[in-house]
Amino acid sequence: MFIEKNYILFFLLNIGMFLVIVGVMLIVVKWRGVKAESVELSQAKKRFVSQIVFHVVMFLIFTLPVHVTMFFVSFAIIMCIKEWYGVVQRINRKGKRRDLFFISLCYLPLYPVILTYCPGLSVGFMVAFLLLYLVVPVLTQDIASPSLKLSTALILILFSYIFSHFIWLRQQENGIALCLFVVFVVHWSDSFAFMVGKMWGKRKLLPLLSPSKTVEGVVGSCIMTMGVAVLFNFVLSLKFSVMEALCIGVIMNVLAQFGDLCLSLFKRESGIKDYGKLLPGQGGFLDRFDSMILVLPLFDYFIRYSQ
Q: pTM for the complete prediction?
């Protein structure tokens, strides 16, 4: 399959930016005298490998045919089910039944297929899933936390709906560029917040929710994300004006920070550090994509209704 030159340039640009940032952070680490065998440096090495893998995988997912995006969304839904049920099990230790978990694993990953080939059935498909979470406990006489089961179903439906926006975006006329834009702008928003916070962060933003987030990291990330949005808008040949790209960068950054904090609420409640171990040094799927939960649907709506 032929990949357009500007997408290849975009990929090389991202790899180059990443290597520059890694170089800067290594200089800072050496200047601070951090030992090579330290835990902090060990975690940084794991993040380095994970970031390279992330760049390559995301680029391929959205530049290959749209069916690949569909399979990615199905994978995203499976990971959300697995990781969210881990949280639910920690909150509700009485609930030992796994029938609804397996029903979710078998049922919800089909949603992207329904959305792609039979979009008219998508609402009914989700309503049927919600009814299963009401009917199965009745038939099995499972009286343990029915309200928690129903809220779990609603959250899983929400996750499925959110990540399905990748399919809608990918089906736009310039869908590849739009998907790459939103994923990598949000990715760099997170990376800048981490980098600035590690190097210059002193004041905690919301320590009870996210102990690692700093005011300096958030402000620095916001400023740098605006520049990245303008740069990516140009490289991907999108039609946003410079002012629009700047505004999109700011809004994406703020929404990404809020998305991260929203899912941190549930991690604090359940007493876990990460949702999973999908990516070494970065946690699970929800840890990597929590910043997308507000950005993705709103960006998709902006694209669809501003044309």
A: 0.91
Instruction: Kindly state whether residue 92 falls inside one of the protein's structural domains.
Output: yes
Per-residue pLDDT for the chain (307 aa), expressed as one digit of tens each?
557 889 999 999 999 998 888 787 777 766 666 554 454 556 666 777 788 889 999 999 999 999 999 999 999 999 999 999 988 888 776 655 688 899 999 999 999 999 988 989 999 999 999 999 999 988 888 887 888 888 999 999 999 999 999 999 999 989 999 999 999 999 999 989 888 887 787 888 888 888 888 899 899 999 999 999 999 999 999 989 999 999 999 999 999 999 999 999 898 888 888 898 887 777 899 999 999 999 999 999 999 888 6
CA distance linking residue 207 with residue 218, whole number of Å: 13
Q: Would you say how long the chain is, in residues?
A: 307
Count how many domains the chain has.
1
- Where in the sequence is the domain holding 167, given as residue range(s)? 74-171
Judge contact between 50 and 279, C-beta under 8 A: yes
The answer to whether residue 25 sits within a structural domain is no
Distance CA 63, CA 176 (A): 6
**Considering only CA atoms, which of 62, 73, 87, 267 is closest in space to residue 161?**
73
